[in-house]
Design a protein that fits this description.
The chain is an alpha/beta fold. It has three domains: 23-219, Four Helix Bundle (Hemerythrin (Met), subunit A) (Up-down Bundle), CATH 1.20.120; 223-314, Beta Barrel (Elongation Factor Tu (Ef-tu), domain 3); 319-445, Rossmann fold (3-Layer(aba) Sandwich). It contains 15 helices and eleven strands.
Length: 449
Amino acid sequence: MVQEVQPAAAGHSGTVARRQPARGSLLVAFALATTTLLWFAARWDHLEFLLPWRGPSQLVMLWSATLATLAILAVVRAQALEPLFGGLDRAVRLHRRLGLAALLLLLAHALLLALDALHVGTPVADVLLPFHGDPERGLDILAFWILVGLGALAYDKRLRHERWLVLHRIIGLLFLLGTLHAATEPGTIQDFEPLRTWIVILLLIGGGAWLYRVLLFRRFGPLYHYRVETLVQHDGMIDLVMRPRDRRMMYEPGTFVFIAVPGFEGQQRELHPFSISSSPVERDLRVSVRQVGDFTRRLGTLQPGQPIQVYGPFGGFTPQRFAPYRRLVWVGAGIGITPFLGMLAFELSNHDFRRIWLYYVARTRADAVYDQEIQDSFLNADSFIDYTLWISSEQGRITAKAIAEEIAPLDDYAVMLCGQPAFVEQMARQFRALGLPSERIITEELQFR
């Protein structure tokens, strides 16, 4: 489920993780290979430049810029690009890996420069400390360390969501400006037209993605205007039901939306992701929210009729995209049950028969706030559904082995997992250990940053 991105709590990101070579991974491999081949072609007549440290330092810097560009592209929130990454949820996971890799390559660049300085006998401080050596390089070195510092700060889980977003936007812009600076400086990029053209293409892609994501999305993104219909309070959770003010949004069950509340003073421009827990055949749109951050707590103060801005839908955590699998195991832990509520509601109205085992994992019975809703509806679906409420405090941790034993002797099923990252990764690992093919393990994590 997709929840508010506060410290590892209600934050989305669901990620559809079909563990096979994905288009996003192929795109990364293609971009890195292109950068590498063009750089080697540019230095072909001066191969001595490659050893021992100067050449590699320049190459890893170009790799860093390439990955940073793709990281920005991955989270552009453009529905047309979702198939490229397998859904925005999966793109977010790729974005996190690419961003970290780009930051580590920056540090590798600095280390290689220091080794090169030692090799040629120049002071290491000249290449690492701003304004210590060549004054013309002082600002470059200062900007480099600012970028590294901001990148490291972005991994501080204590940052509020909006501050983290602002920091993220600044880091992306600095990466782009750094790449532009490198492309306009005399050197390898300037001297070799194909490499320069490739870097310009990366800059245009990254710059366009950053511009749309930061400045244009609110205006040109897939916006729908809703109003609050009802607000149902649970223990630490709310069900927010919204009615369209004009056109309604069409979506697949299991997808998520970004929500903004114009009436929230000081937070009217904040966008927060939440999984949809209603069926696409219903007029009203429902999201189920665990109240863990400032924004989600304020949602509890909404009044009927209050306007809501909804952007979406996004994501690929939906059974309709995995039609070949006629037997599905759904496992939702805690608030991770949310996307399955929408899937279950849809099963009540469609005629696409499937065999489904639904597991709702909760710490205590009091935490299983949607148990009664599921009990009242799962037997009415055309699909044949077995429902199990798993209480961890009474039954211990749920395991893939326990699930497999319940559905034995069948082995041609697919698993959809949703919950906190540690839970999802552990369960996916257990199912793989049981011999379930990786392409039949579909996951969504509750983390969007």
